[in-house]
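Running this now, will post back.
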Amino acid sequence: MPTLEPEQLSIREMREDEASVVLELLKDGFKDTENRLILYVLTRPLALLLMAVGSSGLRFFLNSFVVALVVPVLLTVVALKLLLWRSPDLRQLYAYYNTGQRGLWVAVYDEDDICGCVALEPRDGEPHTAELKRLAVSRWYRRSGVGRRLLRFLEAQARAQGCKCLVAQVSVVTKAAIGLFESSGYSVSSGRRWLGYTVQQVFSKEL
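Update: finished.
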């Protein structure tokens, strides 16, 4: 964890030529979250039971016990990976967040080192409510206050746009992010479940 000089950290809108750098930063964070979430899902009792049933069924058609055991696991992992990457904004990062009231900002240290990012998007059908998205900090700068600076900055942007409520969807395996939101006055308002287990929590805060 580096020691940062606060005056050397600035936050500004992402430029078009920085989209590839930001996407790589997001992908790096996705890998950590994705792997931990897949492990979390695969080790839930019901998931283990379903995979066991699938393996038993496959043994009637396959001669290999190992293949029958591995195939359900691989299919589950592939399905989860496809589900996690179904995000339209990642295909055209700059174009997506350069439309309407959407926005994506980067944290820059020492004038040229992009060390984090965060995005804002209005919630469809929910007046005066926006969603915080794509909050990420590069590995070297984690636990140095960059994430908290980005969060405070985005709250100010949301207020300036007339938003009265800010929400964020957070994976249950990202303990650092959960701690950041809880310590910043957010509370869990709902969640997303899979096989009866919560895999994502929705945090919200009145601005």
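The mean pLDDT is 84. More later if anyone needs it.
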